[in-house]
Write a structure and sequence with these properties.
With about 400 residues, the chain is an alpha/beta fold. The protein has 11 helices and 15 strands. The protein folds into 2 domains: about 250 residues, Metallo-dependent phosphatases (Purple Acid Phosphatase, chain A, domain 2), CATH 3.60.21; about 130 residues, no CATH class. The longest helix has 20 residues. It starts with a strand and ends with a helix.
Length: about 400
């Protein structure tokens, strides 16, 4: 049997200000195009079973275009592969906080898709001699978790689940917040023919027969960390997974991106004048392969004082931003040298929340044209308002 494993589509995801010719968000269109290309490939590969492991939409209340787009793509699958069941579970992004609030995912049951949004369900497909235990986010979050064990009587048993395994994506903070916590004992991979996981956005094997499929596009606040995670695993770009059973042989099917994420070579800014730093940045942009036009670009610069940042050629930076879909000039301040025995900890006094926030914001990377003093002031002010409301 050939199984297709996809996850974390995040349809409706929006980022940056660039719009399409029709007035939509360009990154939302990129994310949709990635799924469209995956459907194109599925229709060629013709898997016997397709599973979607949660976070289908980026929000509980997706936009009408995102809802319609998913309907169209699932209709393509049901029409082109009428004998191949499609099973879809809800992730945390698809799950309302209130149990009284419905989820849009049930709409797709009208297409013949098996949709599981709250309780775990065993689904049996007799023609495939296969059973799928579909476990959405909400089922894993319940105090009494379902027993994650196969239903005997079929040759193939698949566990489809959305959640977070400790240690996965935590080193660089590339794992999303809010995922239901899992462990290997819960999954018991040896009892299954295959475990299809959703939540972590980089394709990763976690047991001989258990994988995260990863997302089809970079829909994380930290795409640069994801790129490093992919490099650590010798992976290039996004994919979905084709799985041959019973051997559980996994073949990643690459999905070409609409545009590239380009991380320019970091610059050491210590001792450079604003004019010298301007030239270094311009040179890095000029040497970018491919060019920065319509791409998503980051330029890291270390050890830059506030005075130097203020006197940079901001007109040139704005020109780079106009060329790229997004250009992030990430200026890092000089590291503050802590004196041992000094500061609040020396006296035993703990920092207040506003002090902690101020310290964090003063060292957070910012685009060069942002006023850090005003940024810090607003952040501390908002925390103060929130504290007053909570106290009231």
């Amino acid at each position: 049997m050939k199984l297709a494993h996809l996850a974390d589509l995040h349809l409706g995801f929006r980022q940056y200000d660039r719009q399409t010719p029709r007035g939509g968000n360009q990154r939302e269109a990129d994310v949709a195009d990635a799924f469209r290309r995956a459907v194109d490939d599925l229709l060629v590969q013709r898997p016997d079973l397709i599973v979607l492991a949660g976070d289908i939409f980026h929000s509980v209340r997706p936009t009408n275009p995102a809802i319609l787009f998913l309907f169209q793509q699932l209709h393509r699958l049901r029409t082109g592969l009428p004998e191949s069941p499609v099973v879809m579970i809800a992730g945390e992004h698809d799950t309302p906080r209130s149990v009284e609030t419905g989820t849009i995912l049930r709409l797709y049951e009208a297409l013949g898709v098996d949709v599981v949004v709250d309780q775990a369900r065993h689904l049996t497909f007799s023609k495939l001699d296969c059973s799928v235990l579909a476990v959405p986010h909400q089922a894993v979050m319940q105090p009494d978790r379902p027993a994650l064990r196969p239903q005997r009587g079929t040759t193939f048993n698949i566990l489809l689940i959305h959640g977070h395994l400790p240690g996965v994506g935590e080193e660089r903070g590339t794992a999303e917040y809010g995922g239901a916590l899992l462990d290997h004992h819960d999954l018991a991979p040896a009892q299954w023919d295959y475990v299809a996981l959703g939540h972590y956005h980089v394709a990763q094997q976690v047991a001989d027969n258990a994988w995260y499929a990863g997302s089809l596009e970079y829909v994380s606040p930290n795409p640069w960390g994801q790129l490093q995670d992919e490099a650590d695993r010798s992976r290039v770009g996004k994919c979905y997974l084709l799985v041959d059973l019973p051997a559980a042989r996994v073949v990643p099917r690459p999905i070409a991106p609409a545009r590239r994420h380009i991380d320019l070579a970091p610059i050491e800014g210590k001792g450079l004048t604003p004019q010298e730093l301007d030239e270094r940045i311009k040179d890095a942009v000029a040497k970018a392969k491919p060019s920065i036009d319509d791409q998503i670009v980051r330029q890291l610069v270390f050890d830059v004082s506030r005075a130097t940042a203020r006197d940079l050629d901001h007109a040139a930076v704005r020109a780079f931003k106009a060329r790229a879909l997004h250009f992030q000039l990430d200026l890092r301040r000089p590291e503050t040298q802590r004196v041992e025995g000094a500061g609040p900890s020396a006296s035993g006094r703990r920092q207040t929340l506003p002090e902690t926030v101020r310290d964090f914001l003063e060292h957070r990377p910012l685009d060069a044209d942002l006023d850090r003093a005003e940024f810090v002031r607003l952040g501390v002010e908002y925390v103060g308002h929130a504290s007053e409301e909570e106290g009231g």
